[in-house]
Specification:
Radius of gyration: 28 Å
Number of strands: 4
Structural class: mainly alpha
Helix content: 55-70%
Oligomer: single chain
Order of helices and strands: HHEHEHEHEHHHHHHHHH
Number of helices: 14
Number of domains: 2
């Protein structure tokens, strides 16, 4: 290829980057929806991750203190140590979901091997919170008996074998799908608007009259869309890394970058195709946002896909973003390449199809 071909690509690339950078509203509109969604996820995780509970410890004996310590260490409650009166007030004002009371004779009963009830009062306003308490309190009592060792009247041995080396917080688990949404949304919106703007402002005629290859126009616009999209995604991912939300290690850094790039390319191809087809900036914005969010939700972006209804899992199997999210989670959270070949193959073929669709739409738009 001649040097003029690459100069043309570079000129179109620089022009689109400059337009994108000067139009800060578009950058903001691309960033805000995923970041707001991430904020909602964070608030939701705080609300449901650990239930607020008032703990009333009336027994100052060794067994009572041990039981109190185990409740604090259970990591499933947000414990507030209170008096009976304070606990009742908190429960009445719906500031705690339950009141757990360790009775004054708890140590005496345990040492006498008598039944030693721990009293639990639950506000069953929400089944999710209620079931958390119903499951967690018996678990804490089991840990109490295990902690007593051979002195325990009930012999309990617990052994945990984790399938994965790392525990991932609920909020952390939502970060990668949200970054995928950002990449897809930015790719579609940025590329579709940059492409549609050429027809809306009639600048496409100037390019067609210029002695430049049409292939250079298409490649330049796609490269600009990809660069801006990948830049935003990499920036947000870097921030999440600094904050400790995402921590890929070793070779999995390269895998993470590859998957982020493939998702950005997928969004770019769709955006160019959409912009060339509609040729109106106002039209492409609304449709782009809807496409990105529909793909995100259909890919199981708001939960664990394996636990979603069967019909959604069946739909998600045909959504390319599903494979991007899966590959990112395996690489970033679990340092695993499980089904990596499948994920990259599906994403790669989808990227080629999206870029091909974008090229076809641009050529047809230019020809017309």
């Amino acid at each position: 290829m001649s040097a003029s071909f690459f100069r043309t690509i570079w000129a179109i690339f620089r022009k689109d980057i400059a337009v994108w950078w000067n139009n800060r509203r578009n950058v903001t509109a691309t960033l805000i929806p995923p970041l707001v969604f991430l904020l909602v996820q964070a608030v939701g995780a705080v609300a449901v991750g650990r239930s607020p509970v008032a703990l009333v410890t009336l027994d100052n004996g060794p067994q009572g203190r041990l039981m109190q310590q185990i409740f604090h260490q259970a990591d499933v409650f947000r414990i507030m140590d209170t008096t009976p009166q304070q606990a009742q007030t908190l429960l009445d004002n719906i500031q705690v979901i339950a009141v757990i009371t360790i009775p004054a004779d708890f140590t005496q009963r345990v040492e006498a091997h008598d039944p030693s009830p721990v009293l639990v009062r639950v506000n069953n306003l929400n089944l999710d919170f209620t079931n958390d308490i119903r499951r967690s309190v018996p678990d804490a009592i089991t840990q109490f008996y295990q902690a007593q060792g051979s002195a325990s009247p009930i012999k309990v041995t617990m052994h945990e074998h984790d399938l994965r080396q790392r525990d991932v917080e609920l909020f952390q688990y939502s970060v990668l799908p949200t970054i995928s949404l950002l990449l897809l949304l930015s790719g579609i919106v940025t590329s579709s608007m940059a492409t549609a703007r050429e027809w809306e402002f009639r600048t496409v005629k100037e390019m067609l009259l210029a002695p430049i290859p049409r292939a250079a126009i298409i490649i330049g616009k796609m490269l600009a869309g990809f660069a801006t999209t990948f830049l935003l995604g990499a920036l947000v991912f870097s921030i999440s890394y600094v904050l400790g939300w995402t921590r890929p290690e070793g070779i999995y850094w390269l895998i993470t970058i590859l998957i982020l790039a493939l998702i950005a390319l997928f969004g770019t191809g769709l955006g160019v195709a959409l912009g060339a087809a509609l040729q109106r900036t106002m039209s492409v914005v609304g449709i782009s946002v809807n496409i990105a969010f529909y793909l995100f939700f259909l890919a199981g972006g708001v939960g664990v896909l394996a636990f979603e209804p069967t019909f959604l899992q069946n739909i998600a199997a045909y959504v390319p973003l599903t494979y991007g999210i899966h590959a990112l989670e395996q690489a970033v959270f679990y340092s695993s390449s499980d089904l990596f070949g499948r994920d990259v193959l599906v994403l790669g073929l989808t990227v080629l199809a999206a870029l091909g669709l974008g090229v076809l739409s641009m050529r047809r738009g230019i020809a017309s």
